[in-house]
Amino acid sequence: MRIGIPREIKDGEHRVALTPTAVRQLTNVVVEPGAGAGVGFTDAQYLAAGATLGGAWDCELVVKVKELQEPEYRKPRRGQTIFAFQHFAPEPSLLAAALETGATFIAFETVGQGSGLPILSPMSAIAGRLAVQVGAWCLQKQNGGSGVLLPGLDGVAPGKVAILGAGNVGANALAVAYGMGASVTVFAKSVQRFPPLRAKYPAARFIAGFDPEAVKSADLVIGGVLTPGQMSPKLISRATLAGMRQGSALVDVGIDQGGIAETSRPTSHSDPIYVAEGVVHYCVPNMPAACARTASLALERAVLPYVRMLARNQMDAELRTGVQVSAGKVVHAQLARDTGR
Hints:
The protein is α/β, with parallel strands linked by helices. It has 11 helices and 15 strands. It has helices spanning about 20-25, 45-50, 90-100, 120-140, 170-180, 195-200, 210-215, 240, 290-310, 315-320, 335-340; strands at about 5, 30, 50-55, 60-65, 80-85, 105, 160-165, 185-190, 205-210, 220-225, 250, 275, 280, 325, 330. Helix 4 (about 120-140) crosses helix 5 (about 170-180) and helix 4 (about 120-140) runs antiparallel to helix 9 (about 290-310).
């Protein structure tokens, strides 16, 4: 089976799914020229690793990072497998295009659903860590923020960070926000993750459920709630945001599944923020691309075992949970419920 690695065309997306190191462990790999350039991997390195340069979309298995972009809608074909982040639920036109191709689409974000999410997890960890950095940037006055410095200063109280979710995104956001000295409160539906986090971060507050009034007092809100394969729950109303101090910030990490706020809409790395109800919104769906080299190396480690399996025309239980669209039909139960397909 030929394995194709196309060049990503989504705004600000510099990641590549497989580096030359992985290519050395595979056979029949076709790399689109420039596919790894954004993270410092040259075409010459791919050739030295045994790949050929050419049309990645001509291959039976296409391994990429992000979902199809509009210029790519007609590139997949029946009998072909597209292995990537898919995020069909928030994008009806994307799902319709995928169904029309007749190809099989396996979603990184639901591989291993029910037993952990081995491909999504490292990207969620990166996004959680980045969320505090970009949130601090959003709070700067030149970006429309309130001018709060999250760590505070001697004699000046630190900023308040509210993290919604205690999973992979939330735990990594907590690590960075706590480490920089911010005042952190974590909200989560389940308290199962609280004991180890409380032991590690004793000065943080942990609250079961969600309290809109507590969010109103935050300088920075980070949305890290995830139900694998489903649309993000709308936890933050427009009224809640309107009750926050002008210039506060929201980093909606779950925007690739629709976002957690009524005011959230996808942005891009080239135009990452907007202001709604006086709150600076950062809603970039491919956040880890900001640290594309680290993210590519982490993604490759997670993806490679499954690529090997697919190249042998094999599929285990974890891969089966990733299959969302096949032969013109939605075959993933939660995607079917979210989209009515």
